[in-house]
Amino acid sequence: MDDEQPPVDDLPFAELWAFAAESGDEAARLALLRGADLVVPASTDGAASWPLAQSEGRDWVTVWTSPELMAAGAPAGPWQVASFAELVLHWPDPAWGLAVDLGTPHPLLLEPGTVSRLLAPDLADEVAAAPGEVVWVQQVVPIAGIDPLLHERDARASGQVQRAADLEHVGAPTVLLQALGRADEELALVTDEGSVHLLRWPVLGAGLYGVDRDAMGLGPGRTTPVREYRVDQVALPHGAGLVELDRHGAETQRARYDALHGRWRLLVPVPAGERA
């Protein structure tokens, strides 16, 4: 082996993409695409557009992996750069596919389901691919729901839940609610002290966590990609927690669920003013 050859992680995206394309390694191209910045045709005033091509009875959004490849595969015109995640976050129609590097020797066509799964895979597939990794999810608890939750035996969760890792960078509760598309529910979710409460637990039985592909597997907020799942009466596992996120972005675990005895154990008492 050539000692001067750089590690794969140090190679420019263009080189890795070209090698994968020329060798027909579609899996490598999909992995690269997930974190890629893409060239997107823009209108003459610089605004983002959704350029479409029709093929096989389907509409395809056309993007390129470099300005040079766009010049080779599309009429000359203005363009701007957007990440793959940004595109999917604002995807206007779940029936549209994605055409990458159309008009070049190595185009890549992604069916709508593939576009969604590339950013938000089925949770069961993710867990199977990384069996040693623990996935945590969370759900905002309404103020009126805190007391009933803490008195619930054999606790279960239903409704929409989010991938906790996708929200680690979110600080203030108001910003969290914006990321979840729930800013209009502030009165029901934010305490007088400016806190929100989160039910957070490690996933067991990943097949019970459904994904809404019409929403591209993401929550309704459009400030950051947040993977979202639908559950119905999922039993909370041992170690699930009730966490307070205060107005400064600091977290305090208020209670921990003891699945062996089917009850919650308080770690920091919930002030009476925050109970229903």
TrEMBL record:
This is SseB family protein. It comes from Klenkia terrae. InterPro entries: SseB_N. It comes from the Bacteria. Residues 16-115 form the SseB protein N-terminal domain.
